[in-house]
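User: Show me an example of a complex going from sequences to structure tokens.

Assistant: Sure. Here are the input components:
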Amino acid sequence: MQDFEELSREFLNRFNTSHFPQKPESLYQPAEYFLGLGGKRVRPVMCLMGNELFDEIKPHTWDVATAIELFHNFTLIHDDIMDKAPLRRGMPTLHEKFGHSNALLAGDVMLVVAYDYINKVPQSNIHKIIQLFNSTAKAVCEGQQLDMDFERTPEVSLADYLQMIELKTSVLLAASLKMGAMLGGAGEGNQQHIAAFGRNLGLAFQIQDDYLDAFGDPAKFGKQSGGDIVANKKTYLLCRAMQLASASQQKEMLELLAADSPDKVVRMISIFKSCGVDEESKILMERYLSGAFQHLEDIAVLANRKEPLRQLARFLVQRDY
Amino acid sequence: MQDFEELSREFLNRFNTSHFPQKPESLYQPAEYFLGLGGKRVRPVMCLMGNELFDEIKPHTWDVATAIELFHNFTLIHDDIMDKAPLRRGMPTLHEKFGHSNALLAGDVMLVVAYDYINKVPQSNIHKIIQLFNSTAKAVCEGQQLDMDFERTPEVSLADYLQMIELKTSVLLAASLKMGAMLGGAGEGNQQHIAAFGRNLGLAFQIQDDYLDAFGDPAKFGKQSGGDIVANKKTYLLCRAMQLASASQQKEMLELLAADSPDKVVRMISIFKSCGVDEESKILMERYLSGAFQHLEDIAVLANRKEPLRQLARFLVQRDY
């Protein structure tokens, strides 16, 4: 049983190589550049942990983990184009550096190469793995579409918001764990539980992300406070506050959304607090996290094998606000 | 043995159904719209013919044919974005009608759904089919990248041009036939010959396309004459004329490429004729077509089984200029 850091190190050793042909350079160099921007590589490590919970890591689990990370980077490249994002991890996004067309095409080819790695899975498992990989890919596209639709929707219900973050974020975390579990020989029930662990963990993580943007310590979390508010991003805080706010608060929120004012962040945070969505979001996060741990508990393997996954959950969702 | 029209009709009967979930509509409706624009569906029919040359059509060959057509439409959607094309088959392109982000994402999800159909191939063949599908997909991306690179390159060598059209067009025609042949149980040698038939046919077809743009009868071919010349598109005619032209003709061509003038099309066509590239392109087309027929000849099945493929070649490349 290896912990997050060990698996992460071993994955990086294998992943940090060229995944593309040399030529044409104009196609493949942008793809390499983007992978070179780094990242926590959480999803492939979850795939490896999903396998190791049940059995020692199979050779092709490394391939599926690689496919998952390539798929994730493909979505980031295309999302950055759609979101017109200038920076990714402090560096120019792919379309900023190489132009929109090159970025689009580099993303496409990265998805195809992800399927090259999936194609290394032996006959006995390949149909199931592709089915899960594809249904996950479609869900992630659906989540991104809803996220874009919400930009043009003044009021997004909490249910719609939760569905969107589940599709855009949680489904891939769940699938990463489940693919690892499948390859590790887990039974149907255990596969369901590990996927549900990932889904709940993903929801807790995303709500934490929303919370920290408004209420986190910028020094501690390394992000500018209120970035989501400035960008009018639909977050748990905004959707829930819109439900709870008084008529006059709702009016003020809609005004803040319609036109930028210098005190926008301060005023929006003040409404959030007055509606109590800061506390509510902590409660909801805690509920999803408990849900995750319950499903982890229910997996029928020895408790000490689950320690790396517990550690992962604590790494992703911290409780010291 | 069914001819092109019969197979085409039967494929359309199966293909003209919904390939996507209902929701979210904002993601899947654009995808359905694009497929609704129609097309000759040449590639899937080639896949079916490739199978039927060797054995009766297997159920999953219809699935692979569907995957090929979805893949082809995915490339058209993304190419239209990159080329800023306003129209496709006389109708607004996807990004014109639904916006760039929706079109990008609809293309992505169409590629994933193509892999859903590929995933219906039985265990015994799936690895080989995915390998060929993926290497083809990468080649098509490489071809599109070279095509874009060439827009910024004043002089493109003939060899580079031929490599580009092989990657962008021929490789997919070859792979469509070869996948069908593999599923129909063809041996290695026959697979090579049918792929070479498709590759040569694709090159002949593309050079014909270049020829007709400048020298075709607009009434007969339904395309505006000289569209490629207006758009400064690198074609066989342009690349070859640049090699053959005198110093003063080269200078004139570079001037015509650098600035639009009202008599650009007439003057460029006059240079093409003076260099003899109209006649040369017919010779080259004929050479590729003979090459295609030679490989068809070399396939070790009864000659009368090859009639549909001969008919297809005559349909794609006509000799009555």
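The lines above are the inputs; the final block is the predicted structure for all two components together. Strands of chain A lie at 87-88, 91-92.
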